[in-house]
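Teaching assistant's notes for section 4

Start the section by putting this record on the projector. Ask students to predict, before seeing the second block, whether Hippurate hydrolase will look compact or extended. Collect guesses on the board.
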Amino acid sequence: MVGNMDLTDLIRGLQPEIAGIRRDIHTHPELAFEERRTSDIVARYLEGLGLDVHRGLAKTGVVARLQAGTSGRAIGLRADMDALPLDELNSFAHRSVNTMRMHACGHDGHTAMLLGAAAALSKTRNFDGTVYFIFQPAEEHEGGGRVMVEEGLFRRFPMEMVFGLHNWPGMPAGHFGVTEGPVMAGTDRFDIKITGRGGHAAMPHQAVDVIVAGSALVQGLQTLVSRNTDPLAAAVVSVTRFEAGFADNILPENAVLGGTARSLTPELRDALEAGVRRICAGIETTYGVGIELHYEPGYPPTINAAAPSAICREVAREVAGNEAVKTNLPPSMGAEDFAYLCREVPGCYVWFGNGPGASGCMLHSPHYDFNDDIIATGIHYWVRLTERALETK
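Reveal the predicted structure now:
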């Protein structure tokens, strides 16, 4: 077994190699379910450590198994691998070489840190049980976590808890946010087509105006939060598209609206959907238009369970210090498909401070870059989390 000082030295020795892998992945980003090069890098590295490596879940997913001791207990550590459809505007040497492909959310860093943890744990093995390293494709919008679950992640690799993290620009580098309960919102999408009767702008009485109906619909949807939701409950309904018309003197026949509804509990999520449907029906009757609503469920809320959250708090404080761990951060209204894993087994998803970043930018910015200075802390967190969750009795 490796002591604390030796573990620190071990991780410090791994840091340059892991940072190099991170930058290589950043240079060659791949979109959802297309992470073939990244998946190959991950699998080869894990096989080189002697881990039992499985490929093919959700097309490009990788799951590696490391066992120590005799316990039948098991946990999972998850990192996401996909990039965003975005042109990078950075000028450093490891910038993306792929057009409309960029690691603008730090998944390159998440993947690299988990590889570093696998390397460290394969040497220390200071735990009793099994740890599964889960490298997931398609977090950005495409639901790779859901696909992995549907294709048997937890049937093939049974585990009692699962853990994830996400770098967080604006939080001091190496600090942690660990919140029990809702941590990310559920998000659903809607598309609404309004059909009326087109006509001359000078004779609106001869037409059925879809722009007026659509404007009323936008206003009505805002009441779902302002007048139908408890002010202490977090929810957002945003109309982000409104397309209608093509000439100043023509009232269009059709209008199309779209947007998202976000909430932190399954109950409120259901209430928002019912509200969208109710308001569409009311506008249809009031304005004499036809409305076609397509409501598409997206990621559910990500809810951290009590037991794994307690372990994460304890380990984060050990690794970063008491003052560097926040336990009362408000949930983000963004969404995360780690939620699908948390619905199957108790899980915890934490924020990991990325600092201000090289240019002070936030996630999904064309100027974003992961902060390599936090890699060692991230590896240390994963190693100690594994040791704590699978303590030797």
